[in-house]
Design goal:
This protein is an alpha/beta fold. 35% of the residues lie in helices and 18% in strands.
Length: 285
């Protein structure tokens, strides 16, 4: 065995980042994303495909929850190459019922779009929400962000330091974050089969690894992962949580019992679960 990252050879790295292999039927879970999200759009007031930028992919769906409602921005996963905001609203019914507006973000997908572009788009979406929150009754002083898997990584890039002035945002625009099964150090991604579509080089890894751009005393953050995740996905969350805390940020880290890499998001709006309760506590409900 030739170790190329930590103590892992190529085969071990590829296994460690193969989330699909940790569930029996990923297609059924992805279909549930779509069906739950479609039901949310059918039953709730939803502002669809609102442009936050000039590219056709730069759109959001908004589920308003009433005047001066806090805002939860959710960024979908899919290893930066799959899914959209249309598959990402399963948590809308529970959040809106609690008085929290939901915004689901679409972004361009790899390999057509680089990770630099995707990160830029998510920051642009946040900037749009902050500037236009009042247009849908939201409170721009109560913006929270979250995401799962690749969306967890992109959440990490939103709470990162050093970029806000370029988008006209205050450093503390985000009041809290929820990152699920995220990827915070991208060097193993560069070395894995995922780089077939991500095309990351060392400079791209440095620019886009949340672990390398931690803010001082960042916003409160909830970090969680499924019980059946690979050891690498768990390690990434644990290492990021430790680093966040060392920089002075408050962090609530836990494993979601009985959940996997894909179905953990179904707990987001369920206050009977540890994750659902953590979200409400974060927002102050």
């Amino acid at each position: 065995m030739t170790a190329i990252y930590r103590d892992m050879d190529q085969a071990a790295i590829d296994r460690g980042y193969n989330a699909r292999a940790t569930v029996d039927d990923v297609d059924a879970l992805l279909l549930e994303y779509t069906s739950r999200s479609a039901k949310a759009r059918d039953t709730l007031h939803c502002l669809e495909d609102v442009a936050y930028g000039g590219h056709p992919d730069e759109v959001i769906d908004i589920f308003p929850a009433g005047p001066n409602a806090p805002i939860f921005i959710f960024i979908h996963g899919g290893y930066w190459r799959a899914l959209s905001q249309k598959d990402s609203a399963s948590m809308a019914p529970g959040l809106v019922a609690k008085g929290i507006s939901l915004v689901t973000v679409n972004y361009s997908l790899a390999p057509s779009a680089s990770l630099d572009t995707i990160v830029h788009q998510c920051r642009l979406a946040l900037s749009w929400v902050w500037e236009n929150a009042a247009s849908f009754g939201g409170d721009r002083d109560a913006i929270y962000v979250g995401g799962s898997s690749a969306g967890g990584h992109l959440t990490g890039m939103l709470v990162a330091s050093g970029w806000h002035s370029d988008f006209g945002l205050p450093e503390r625009a985000i009041k809290g974050a929820v990152s699920l099964s995220g990827l915070y150090e991208l060097e193993p991604i560069r070395l894995s089969h995922i780089n077939e579509w991500m095309k990351l080089d060392l400079a791209g890894v440095r620019r886009n690894s949340p672990q390398g751009h931690l803010p001082k005393a960042g916003c409160p953050i909830v970090i969680s992962y499924g019980e059946t995740e690979t050891a690498e996905f768990k390690r990434q969350s644990i290492d990021y949580a430790k680093a966040w805390t060392l920089e002075g940020g408050a962090c609530n880290l836990f494993e979601a019992t009985g959940r996997n890499h894909f179905d953990i998001i179904f707990d987001l709006d369920n206050p009977e679960t540890r994750l659902g309760r953590a979200v409400l506590d974060l927002v102050g409900f």
